[in-house]
Design goal:
Layout lengths: L1 H23 L2 H8 L2 E5 L8 E2 L5 E2 L1 H14 L5 E5 L5 H6 L5 E2 L7 H6 L2 E3 L4 E3 L1 E6 L13 E6 L3 H12 L4 E6 L2 H9 L5 E5 H8 L8 E3 L7 E3 L2 E3 L3 H20 L6 H4 L5 H7 L5 H4 L6 H8 L3 H8 L29
Parallel strand pairs: 1-4, 1-5, 9-10, 9-11
Antiparallel strand pairs: 2-3, 6-14, 7-13, 8-11, 8-12
Helix pairs in contact: 3-9, 3-13, 9-13
Length: 340
């Protein structure tokens, strides 16, 4: 009897494993039938995903969602945004509550191999840092021994922080919060000496202080934090669409194609431009999309550089330099495979 039960249980488990990819493979059809893509974003992070007082979402991660909607539905506005905490984000994707996650999420070995998820690229190369009040008189993270540190739970920053202090023989007292807004509120209220997170997030959170100039981001970067969109495993078609939507933006910037000049480029005799914009070849069909999938992305959302500068660039409150996020031809490491 035990053997029969064991065999039955094993068979059911196998069926469950086989069924998961089949169910996941329906994402593209579900989005098309719904006429809307559902994208998980943060609960509110300036420059990356933040709703205004009318509920309109803006940010780099938001535009990454919109690029996929433009590719699939031909309309970048056809997105429903679901705000998620760091603890909620992976469960929401695994359960099918959202079609993709674009929420300043770090690509790591564990997340890529044990959660049933696939990272579809990097839309922002980042690293963890420290925000301190100027009145503290600290100029280096090596001077933070004994400090109290505000940190968001459910993030890679918790482990990185522990590793950094241990390796440098320093002690700290963690002050843990559930959301990034709570961490900056705790920092502002004096509940901690230091706020730690990805540097991009620190620049964003600093804008929420009563006096942003009262705090400074220390020079040390203590980790690698490649941030990017995430999808469920077992759905290669959807994975390819999300991945190549970002690659299309990077290739467009490299070719000098912008939302402003893309219509002129439709007449280009450059074979690479023709393949990208769908005036020749079958690149869209290979993704299960229309020929103008990349045209719709760039026309409605912009190339990668436009997306970066509009949301976090030098003329925004965050004033972040391209740095690592510049194209490989401009001294950065943003690099996309060719569309051919």
């Amino acid at each position: 009897m035990k053997t029969l039960v064991s065999l039955t249980t094993a068979a059911l488990a196998t069926v469950g494993l086989m069924a998961a990819p089949a169910q996941a493979a329906e994402t593209l059809n579900a989005v098309k039938e719904r006429g809307e893509m559902i994208c998980g974003v943060s609960t509110g992070l300036p420059g990356f995903s933040l709703p205004d007082d009318k509920g309109n979402w803006t940010g780099l991660d938001v535009d990454t969602c919109r690029a996929v909607a433009a590719a699939v539905l031909g309309d970048a506005t056809k997105v429903k945004f679901i705000p998620l905490t760091a603890k909620e984000r992976f469960t929401a994707l695994q359960s099918g509550e959202i079609d993709m996650l674009s929420r300043n999420t770090t690509w790591t070995h564990t997340r890529d191999t044990s959660l049933g998820l696939n990272f579809a690229g990097v839309n922002y190369y980042d690293g963890q840092g420290f925000l301190v009040s100027k009145s503290l008189g600290v100029t280096s993270a090596k001077e933070l021994d004994g400090a109290s540190v505000c940190i968001q739970s459910g993030t890679t920053t918790e482990l990185n922080l522990a590793d950094y202090f241990r390796l440098n023989g320093m002690n700290y007292s963690p002050v843990v919060f559930d959301t990034s807004d709570q961490t900056v509120q705790g920092f502002s209220a004096g509940r901690c000496d230091v706020l730690t997170s990805d540097q991009s997030q620190l620049y964003a959170l600093r804008t929420k202080l009563d006096d942003p100039n009262s705090a400074v981001v220390l020079p040390e970067v203590i980790s690698k934090e490649p941030l990017g969109p995430v999808v469920r495993q077992g759905d290669d078609e959807w994975f390819n669409i999300v991945k190549w939507s970002l690659f299309a933006q990077l290739n467009a910037e490299e070719m000098g194609i912008t939302s402003a000049n893309i219509d002129d480029n439709m007449k280009s005799e450059n074979p690479s431009v023709q393949r990208l914009l769908g005036t020749s070849g079958d690149m869209g069909a290979k993704l299960g999309l229309s020929a103008d999938w990349a045209y719709n992305i760039v026309k409605q959302v912009g190339n990668y550089g436009e997306m970066f500068e509009r949301n976090v660039g030098k003329d925004t409150p965050l004033a972040i330099a391209r740095g690592l996020n510049a194209l490989w031809t401009e001294g950065g490491i943003q690099y996309a495979p060719p569309i051919r």
